[in-house]
């Protein structure tokens, strides 16, 4: 299950998401094959999207520890690209513990 939190003030939206990842999803993220995508009523297919980029791998020799990813969000990254003024960034921390993967993430989106 995922836990969502959203705060909106003026033209800034802060979204937090926590949950569990499958081993396949964690492997895809490490291989550079994972992305974040935010949908809105105006853009139901997605308004801003970005590839997760690994910036820190703090796992020990048993594979336990943390992985830190960042993401830059843009309408130009949507497939197909969308024309929007929205943009943002995010940070995702994945906790690896004996083959179980959980994560906490925070995204800031500007409109």
Summarize the model shown.
This protein has 111 residues and is mainly β. It is 7% helix and 58% strand.
Low-confidence stretches: none
Number of strands: 8
Helicity range: under 10%
Quickly give the structural class. mainly beta
Query: Mean pLDDT, rounded to whole units?
Result: 93
The quaternary state of the protein chains shown equals single chain
Strand content: over 45%
Order of helices and strands: EEHEEEEEE
The number of helical runs is 1
Report the sheet with the most strands, covering strand number, pairing sense and barrel closure.
6 strands, antiparallel
- Computed Rg: 15 Å
Distance between the termini: 28 Å
Widest sheet, order of strands: 1-2-8-7-6-5
- Apparent shape: elongated
Tell me what the structure shows:
7% of the residues lie in helices and 58% in strands. The chain has one helix at 23-30, and strands at residues 3-9, 12-21, 35-38, 48-51, 53-59, 65-74, 87-97, 100-110. The strands form two sheets. Strands 1-2-8-7-6-5 form a six-stranded antiparallel β-sheet. A two-stranded antiparallel ribbon has the order 3-4. The model has no long low-confidence stretch (mean pLDDT 93).
């Amino acid at each position: 299950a995922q836990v969502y939190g959203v705060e909106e003030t003026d033209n800034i939206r802060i979204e937090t998401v926590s949950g569990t990842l499958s081993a396949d999803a964690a492997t895809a993220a490490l291989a550079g094959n994972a992305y974040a995508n935010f949908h809105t009523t105006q853009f139901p297919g997605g308004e801003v999207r970005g590839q997760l980029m690994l910036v820190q791998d703090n796992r020990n020799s048993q594979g336990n520890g943390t992985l830190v990813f960042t993401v830059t969000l843009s309408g130009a990254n949507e497939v197909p690209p969308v024309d929007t003024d929205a943009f943002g960034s995010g940070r995702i921390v994945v906790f690896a513990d004996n083959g179980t993967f959980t994560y906490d993430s925070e995204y800031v989106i500007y409109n």
